[in-house]
Amino acid sequence: MIKAAIVGATGYVGAELVRLLAQHRQVELVALTSHSYSGQSFEQVYPHFRNQVDRVCLGDDLAPVLDRADVIFFALPHGHVAQKVDAAALQKARVIDLGADFRLEDAAEYERWYGLAHPNEALLNQAVYGLPEWYRAEILQARLIANPGCYPTCSALALAPLLKSGLIQPEGLIIDAKSGVTGAGRALALGHHFNECNESIKAYGIASHRHTPEIEQTLRTVSGQPVTLTFTPHLVPMNRGILATIYAGLTDGVKDSDLRAAYENAYGKEPFVRLLPDGAYPETRWVKGSNFCDIGFRVDTRSNRLIVVAAIDNLVKGAAGQAVQNMNLMFELDETAGLEALPLFPA
Question: What is the CATH number for 91?
Fold first, then answer.
């Protein structure tokens, strides 16, 4: 049994990790921590775990967690994990960071987009970006995983095969993405109150969202060429889900069959990426609660542009599910273990 701990277990992503790992037959949850609920039982915080997860939340001290765990999942905001994890900690346990501290390879880029100097630049070159469909070999050897952001997961999976195959132009990409409110986390904020976001949709982080350099970095690495894009996220009044509608210029002579072949070559054997048939397009309701990413596309022949639509559950494939997928790879388990659940409908 793999002994797993979750630091920050009472946020939405942390609770989703608990849900997935509590049902994983090869994992034992040995520690859950919470800054806000230290000393309380986890089922008091989330009553749907009653009689299923018998754990009292520990406080902020990492030492007892390191002594118990083979792998530690950190579900904390940026700036925290890099202060807690060092080379000595990585000798004791493998680490999967669901925050942003190790996603960007360049510390200067981190400071530019996140507004603070990187807390542990020395570890950046040890971190592996945890997008299994594109970094599987590196993940197998890793002790520190930078779990991708939710928007970057959806966007990169949709675009990477096409850029790698040279089927679309690498500049001028437009990503128009919508997310449910859980993507903003569990902390109280006026804009996330029911009366503030219900019956409305709004764009945010315009030309400034922190996931922009992460998406560009991943696509640049996969394709081997510079990539520039415009990324605009939107908040929509639903609990879960991300839908990304992406626009790209086609290179000369590209046909529908070329695009489909690129996707099938990249994802034909992937357990969690589903390429939809012609004329079918993803919806968030068909991936809710699952680790799937659904992708559909259509060529606008009038403008010679490609339109790609992709959908994920932001809490599963966009966060906790992908983290479990990474753990499975790191410990050489079946990659789908603990992630077999089909989407929930209606939900």
Answer: 3.40.50.720
One-letter identity of residue 151: Y
Total domains in the fold of the chain: 2
Phi, psi of 78 (to 5 degrees): -60, 150
- Same domain assignment for residues 132 and 241: no
Are both 126 and 214 inside the same structural domain? Answer: no
Question: What is the extent of the structural domain holding 9?
Answer: 2-148+316-330
Contact 315, 301 (CB under 8 A): no
32 and 117 both lie in a single domain? yes
Q: 242: buried, middle or exposed (CB in 10 Å: 19+, 13-18, 0-12)?
A: buried
Backbone dihedral angles phi then psi of residue 162, each to the nearest 5 degrees: -75, -40
Summarised one tens digit per residue, pLDDT across range 137-183 is 999 999 999 999 999 999 999 999 999 999 999 999 999 999 999 99
Report the catalytic residues: 150
pTM exceeds cut of 0.85: yes
Residue with tokens 């008091």: 44
